[in-house]
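Handout, section B. The chain below has 225 residues.
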Amino acid sequence: MIVPLAALIHVERRSGAPGARDKVDCWYWHSVFYERYEKSVDTTAMADFRAVTSWILGRGGKPSWLPGSVPPGMDFKTVVDRKSALYSGVLNLIALAGARNLVYGSPRGSSLQIDHLFPKGRSKPWATHPWMESVLNATLLDESTNKAKGKKDPSDFYHADVLPGHGKTGASVRDTFGSHLISPAAESSFAHGSSGAPNSVAIFEDFIREREKDVLAEIAKKLSC
């Protein structure tokens, strides 16, 4: 996908056509979330380059395989392969949203790690849940934040690190969580995520379901082109 992307960016820059970048973006996000490059890469790349170039230059209309909507039945709870287009696509959305430092709310550093939000550990009641490795339980963290989080329960991390850290900087906790595509409802589940709670697994599941809504809403924005 890198080759057609580079080629289309070149066309976009040389054309100077109004809305050309938006058309390249439209193709890119559809390619990611419709997984157009999972098979027959060379054939798809050539066909895409010709069709999108024609669209950019005004010689043809929008390709029919850019429907402008989220693929039906999309389920990120089972997306666990970090090398897949869907997993990478969600992380790209998080990066674009800001992925601010979860402890202080400051801009993220340059060295980022992918890690669980609900940590994996033998003592955690959600550790063997099928959604544990889902991209919905992952985000981008700088090294210092990841060390602070460690294997702490989300509730402990939230109250012992996140709230005091934001209190020091004056940053908005809500804005910080929003920059990780975590809505108020998902944030509430995170803040109550304790391994000692009798409904700890249900809280984890609520977090995953709510975050999926946030991710799908962001995807819908990218595909509405």
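Note. The chain is about 50% helix and 5% strand. Compare this with the example in section A.
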